[in-house]
Structure formats: structure tokens, C-alpha cells
């Protein structure tokens, strides 16, 4: 004899579901903590860069002053009478010419390092300050978007829980009604069998009075059978009603299950990536690239002989890549960003029908629902595509703002033929106060509009994902049902 199949109890199913949801909720919390940590590390990095260049500017200024003192010390000698006479007599000698060029070169280096210190203090450090402010501001907005996405995901999971509980309740009612119906059928069979046996034992051999008594007993037995039959009919109707409710509840559960798995997959595969790419890292790598390119331009123009040492820095700047950083981050915290297991259908009390029921009496309802979903999806996709186009155009505007090539400071190192002082003015095109205020206002206004459209697009895509999953499952089930009907007809 085979042992009866063991079914999971309601409490076991709910406990497993709660455990899985708790794991996802913990994962979502860790994701926010991880992004918070990355923001803190980013701010600390930018602060370290500021402190580094501030100290380096002091060193460059001290070096410039020491070079100036060195040059003045030996130039003072040439101004003496004796040295002037020596210079006059030896003005055609190449050693003297080399000596003069060497002293001029020291003065030139002194001016160059003063310029370099000025660029560090008034150009590069303000850029890092701006990147830090932008990163903090954008991360707050990104966190709002991420929290909204997580809230939507938890809402979907809660909806699935509610639908699953409803399915359990109706399926339990159906099983109970079926049990009562079987009990009524047994009573009916028992009563009919008892009546037949009594009629067989009782034959009309007695006088008329005794016959009348037996007729009355027979009438009572038939009345009892009719009562049982009525009770059976009521229980049959109740079972049919509960069975239909259970089928519909199971269909809703399967649809919600498909939509939930689609939403979870979209969040882990697409939403997280988009959140990091298009929100958290928005403009950060490009702005950092510009700041470091400013440093490179200053150093390379100061001394081309240092090119070998600067190649390593330039290579690091060239390798600033948001996609690579994101991939590395997600690999480092693989247990936080990897998608969870799919939610599987949990059969209740032996209900092994894990597919949508597309037969009558729910077939016409499913067909109508599929058509409604198709119409709704068409409208939503058109609307969301328009929002996407607006969002992408705004994103391109922001990218144009943060990728403008304004890091070249070669003008600061241009010399006239008379070897006069180098242009020490900082690039006014970037650091002039009116220009900064205007660009900052435009940038923040554009960012606000972009995040509004980003939220609208993500919310629309979330809704489309859920509806599309339900529609595809309905369409697939109805298609299979039609093929089955055609085969039966043939």
C-alpha cells in the first residue's frame, strides 16, 4: 500500500512565504545601506582629494618662493659692478649665456609653480567641492527613487500574500463542502438500502388494520428519503458554488504569482542597475573626470619631462567608468544584489492544478480580461514611451552639462617672447561667479525635471511589467485551451 501524500498545511505555507519575504526585505535594507556606504566613501574620497590639493598648493607655493629666492640671490651678483663688467666682457660666451638662461628658467619655474598653486586653490578644489555637493544632493533624490521602488515591490509581495490567503480560504471551503456532500450521499444510500430491506421483509399477510400501519411506516420512510435528497441537493449546490470560488481564487493567485515574479526580476535586474547608473552615479564620473583632467593639463604643461609619471594618473582618469564601477560594486556585494529565487506555486490541500483554468464557466471571463489587459497595455506603453523619450532627452541635456570639455588650462602657461609673467588668471569660462550661478541653476532645474520623469517612467514600467505578465499568462492559457477544444472537436 502506498502512503497517502503529505500536503503542506496553511501555517507551513504562510511560514515559508513569510521567511522568503523577510529575506527580501532584509536584502532591500542592505541595498540601501550599501548605497549609503558608497555615498559616504565617495564624499570622503572627494574630501581627501580637496585636502590633498590644498596641501599640494601650499607646497607648490613654498617651492615657488624658494626658487624665487634662489634666482634673486644669483641675479643680485650680476647686478654688482664687478659682475656687470664681467658680463660685458663675456657677453658672447656661451657659458655666460647658458648661465643667464638657467637663471631665467628658474624664475620661469617659480612663476609656473605659483600658477600651479593658484589653479589648485581656485579651480581644482572648487570642482571637487561642487562634485561633493552634487553627489550628496543627487544621492538624496536617488534614495527617494530607490525607496519608492522598494515600497512598490513590497506592495506587490503583500498583494500576493493577500491573494494567496484568499485562495487558501476558498479552497478550504470547497474541500469542506465536498466532504459534507459525500456524507449526504452516504446517508442517502444507507436510507435507501434500509427501506428496500424492510419492504422485502414485510409482505401483506395480516388483516387490514395491520396493513394500514405498514403503509404509514412506508410513507414515513419515503418522507425521510426525500429529506435526505433535499439535503443532498443543497449540499451539491453549496459545493458547486464553493468549487467555482476556489477556481477563481486559484486563478487570481496564479496571476498575482506571475506578476510578482516579474516585478521582483525587473527590480533586481533592471531597476537596481538603472538606479545606480542613471541616479546615484549621474554626472559623478564625468565631473570627477573633468576635475582630474584639469590637474593633468596643469601638470603636463608645467613640465613635459614628468610625462612618464603622469601617464599612470592619466591612465587612471581614462579608466573612469561608471559601468565598470557599478559592476565591481555589484560583484563585491553579490549576496545583496543577486535576484532571489522565484516564488513557486504552493498547492493547497492536494490542489495540484498549477495552471490557469480556462474552461467554462471562467473562460469567457478570462477572455474579456485578456482583451482588457491588451487594451490597457497598449495605452500604457504609448504613454510610457513618450515619458521615456522626454526623460532621455533631459538626461542627454544633463550629460551635456557635466561633460563639457572645460578642463584645458594650457592658456595659463602661455609665454610671450619677452619672457614676461605667465598668465595666472584662472579659467573665467568655468569659475566666474555669474557663469557658475547660471549653470548651477540650470543644472539643478534640469535635474529636478529629470527625476520627476524618471519616477514617472519607472512607475509606468512597473505597472506594465505586472500587467504584461498577467496578459501573457492569460494569452498562453487561452491559446492552449483553444487548441485543446479544436482537437476535441476534430
From TrEMBL:
<dbReference type="InterPro" id="IPR001060">
    <property type="entry name" value="FCH_dom"/>
</dbReference>
<feature type="compositionally biased region" description="Basic and acidic residues">
    <location>
        <begin position="181"/>
        <end position="203"/>
    </location>
</feature>
<keyword id="KW-0175">Coiled coil</keyword>
<dbReference type="InterPro" id="IPR051627">
    <property type="entry name" value="SLIT-ROBO_RhoGAP"/>
</dbReference>
<feature type="region of interest" description="Disordered">
    <location>
        <begin position="181"/>
        <end position="219"/>
    </location>
</feature>
<feature type="compositionally biased region" description="Polar residues">
    <location>
        <begin position="204"/>
        <end position="213"/>
    </location>
</feature>
<feature type="coiled-coil region">
    <location>
        <begin position="363"/>
        <end position="397"/>
    </location>
</feature>
<dbReference type="Pfam" id="PF00611">
    <property type="entry name" value="FCH"/>
</dbReference>
<dbReference type="InterPro" id="IPR031160">
    <property type="entry name" value="F_BAR_dom"/>
</dbReference>
<dbReference type="InterPro" id="IPR027267">
    <property type="entry name" value="AH/BAR_dom_sf"/>
</dbReference>
<protein>
    <recommendedName>
        <fullName>F-BAR domain-containing protein</fullName>
    </recommendedName>
</protein>
<feature type="domain" description="F-BAR">
    <location>
        <begin position="22"/>
        <end position="325"/>
    </location>
</feature>
Amino acid at each position: 500500500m502506498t502512503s497517502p501524500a503529505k500536503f503542506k498545511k496553511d501555517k507551513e505555507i504562510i511560514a515559508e512565504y513569510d521567511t522568503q519575504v523577510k529575506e527580501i526585505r532584509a536584502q532591500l535594507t542592505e541595498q540601501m545601506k550599501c548605497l549609503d556606504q558608497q555615498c559616504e566613501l565617495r564624499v570622503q574620497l572627494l574630501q581627501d582629494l580637496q585636502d590633498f590639493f590644498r596641501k599640494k598648493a601650499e607646497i607648490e607655493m613654498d617651492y615657488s618662493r624658494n626658487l624665487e629666492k634662489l634666482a634673486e640671490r644669483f641675479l643680485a651678483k650680476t647686478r654688482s659692478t664687478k659682475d656687470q663688467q664681467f658680463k660685458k666682457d663675456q657677453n658672447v660666451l656661451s657659458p655666460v649665456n647658458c648661465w643667464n638662461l638657467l637663471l631665467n628658467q628658474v624664475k620661469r619655474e617659480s612663476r609656473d609653480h605659483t600658477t600651479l598653486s593658484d589653479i589648485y586653490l581656485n579651480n581644482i578644489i572648487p570642482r571637487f567641492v561642487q562634485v561633493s555637493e552634487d553627489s550628496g544632493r543627487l544621492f538624496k533624490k536617488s534614495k527617494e527613487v530607490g525607496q519608492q521602488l522598494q515600497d512598490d515591490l513590497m506592495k506587490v509581495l503583500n498583494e500576493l500574500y493577500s491573494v494567496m490567503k484568499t485562495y487558501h480560504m476558498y479552497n478550504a471551503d470547497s474541500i469542506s463542502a465536498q466532504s459534507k456532500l459525500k456524507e449526504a450521499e452516504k446517508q442517502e444510500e444507507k436510507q435507501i438500502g434500509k427501506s428496500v430491506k424492510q419492504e422485502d421483509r414485510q409482505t401483506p399477510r395480516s388483516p387490514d388494520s395491520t396493513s394500514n400501519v405498514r403503509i404509514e411506516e412506508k410513507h414515513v420512510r419515503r418522507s425521510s428519503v426525500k429529506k435526505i435528497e433535499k439535503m443532498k441537493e443543497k449540499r451539491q449546490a453549496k459545493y458547486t458554488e464553493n468549487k467555482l470560488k476556489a477556481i477563481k481564487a486559484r486563478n487570481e493567485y496564479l496571476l498575482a504569482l506571475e506578476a510578482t515574479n516579474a516585478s521582483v526580476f525587473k527590480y533586481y535586474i533592471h531597476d537596481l542597475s538603472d538606479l545606480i547608473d542613471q541616479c546615484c552615479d549621474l554626472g559623478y564620473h564625468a565631473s570627477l573626470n573633468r576635475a582630474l583632467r584639469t590637474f593633468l593639463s596643469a601638470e603636463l604643461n608645467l613640465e613635459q619631462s614628468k610625462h612618464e609619471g603622469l601617464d599612470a594618473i592619466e591612465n587612471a582618469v581614462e579608466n573612469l567608468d561608471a559601468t565598470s564601477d557599478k559592476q565591481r560594486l555589484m560583484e563585491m556585494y553579490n549576496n545583496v544584489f543577486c535576484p532571489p529565487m522565484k516564488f513557486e506555486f504552493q498547492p493547497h490541500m492536494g490542489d495540484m492544478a498549477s495552471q490557469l483554468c480556462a474552461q467554462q464557466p471562467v473562460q469567457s471571463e478570462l477572455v474579456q480580461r485578456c482583451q482588457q489587459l491588451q487594451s490597457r497595455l497598449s495605452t500604457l506603453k504609448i504613454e510610457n514611451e513618450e515619458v521615456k523619450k522626454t526623460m532621455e532627452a533631459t538626461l542627454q541635456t544633463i550629460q551635456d552639462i557635466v561633460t563639457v570639455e572645460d578642463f584645458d588650462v594650457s592658456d595659463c602657461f602661455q609665454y610671450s617672447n619677452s619672457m614676461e609673467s605667465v598668465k595666472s588668471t584662472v579659467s573665467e569660462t568655468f569659475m566666474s561667479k555669474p557663469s557658475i550661478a547660471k549653470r548651477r541653476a540650470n543644472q539643478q532645474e534640469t535635474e529636478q525635471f529629470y527625476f520627476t520623469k524618471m519616477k514617472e517612467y519607472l512607475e509606468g514600467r512597473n505597472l506594465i511589467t505586472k500587467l504584461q505578465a498577467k496578459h501573457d499568462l492569460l494569452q498562453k492559457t487561452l491559446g492552449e485551451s483553444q487548441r485543446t477544444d479544436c482537437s476535441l472537436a476534430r
